[in-house]
Amino acid sequence: MILSDKDIKQYLKEGKIKIEPFDESQIMPVGIDLKLGNEFRKFRLDVKSHINPSTDSLEDTTELIKIGDKDLFVLHPGDFVLGVTKEYIELPCDLAARIDGRSSLGRLGIIVHSTAGHVDPGWEGRLTLEISNIGKLPVSLIPNMKFCSLIFEKISSTVEKGYRGKYLGQSGPDASKIIEEFKK
């Protein structure tokens, strides 16, 4: 079941969903609009010829770029970057969410998330966005612009174990930590 605006307001009022910073104008009929943050993680093409997920730490293969509120980040056709939401999100263990792209950006060729649009129950942190430009022209990404929606889904029962994965509590667009899965 997807939460309505009425249910979202109740969850926020009760502190079950936490979003910071937050303005009630962000509430939509079945979700919340989230804003684009000021940090981007871009792959450095001069470091490696390819990525081996089982052996490569990606911190040295990517570059963190921080921009000011009035600056622009230009995403060129074919480019891929990690971005982050302005908001820090906390979900209870009886609620999941999914990141949904905005039609207005899709019409410019901007894909807001390529694969990881699911947010687990118990999540805490700023959400990483997998941003691509599949259009024909460069597009400016502007901090604090409405960038995506978060749709909340009530699950059948409270999960036994909320999210406690490798990205818990992240504050920026962390590079992939897939290498940790090969160390087990």
If classified by CATH, what would the architecture be?
Distorted Sandwich
Tally of structural domains = 1
Average pLDDT score: 93
Q: Name the overall outline.
A: globular
Relative helix content: under 10%
Report the β-strand fraction as a percent range: 35-45%
Reported for the largest beta sheet, the result is: 6 strands, antiparallel
CATH class: Mainly Beta
Number of strands: 13
Distance between the termini: 36 Å
The assigned structural class equals mainly beta
Give the H and E element order: HEEEEEEEEHEEEEE
Counted by DSSP, the helix tally is 2
Radius of gyration: 17 Å
What is the name of the CATH superfamily? Deoxyuridine triphosphatase (dUTPase)
- Per CATH, what is the topology? Deoxyuridine 5'-Triphosphate Nucleotidohydrolase, Chain A
Poorly predicted runs: none
What are the SSEs and their pairings?
Layout: H1 5-13, E1 18-20, E2 27-28, E3 31-35, E4 39-43, E5 62-66, E6 73-75, E7 80-90, E8 95-101, H2 103-106, E9 110-111, E10 118-119, E11 124-133, E12 139-141, E13 146-154
Antiparallel strand pairs: 1-7, 2-3, 3-13, 4-5, 4-7, 6-12, 7-11, 8-10, 8-13, 9-11
